Predict the 3D structure of the following.
Amino acid sequence: MAAPVFTAAEAKKVETFLRSKLNPNLAVRLRQRPDECAEIYIENELLGVVSKNVEEGETSYSFEIVILDIDLEGI
């Protein structure tokens, strides 16, 4: 079975939801080739990815934030 494709319409809905919950400057950007993930940015900084999951006819989205150890220096 092929991986679910993250569509532009879904990206807009997820972006609207995340902006209302997290940050109004957040942007969801599709990758250049269609796949099940989109990238989450605040301004020009990549914050993480959101993945589309389809199981037993139900769709959900998982948001993963990447924090590097160098990002924590000086905190």
About this structure: The two ends are 44 Å apart (CA to CA). The longest strand covers residues 45-55. The CA atoms of residues 48 and 57 lie 26 Å apart.
